[in-house]
Amino acid sequence: MPRRPRSLTRPCARLVDLASHVNDGGFWIVSRSFNLTVRDTLKTRTVLETILSAVGFAMAATLSTLI
Known about the structure:
Blueprint: H1 9-16, H2 25-33, H3 38-66
Helix pairs in contact: 1-3, 2-3
């Protein structure tokens, strides 16, 4: 368990943001720019957001143990 739980607040908030794709303006910009269907854009963004969230959480957890 990290010594500073506050340091994990931002990565946890990022995990909550994972499911808000369709309300995000970036979702529609990517969809229109690359001529993707909503389904394809959702698949792509879900994978990318999951990777981004997991890496951010791992980095924050690692840093909280080192600091």
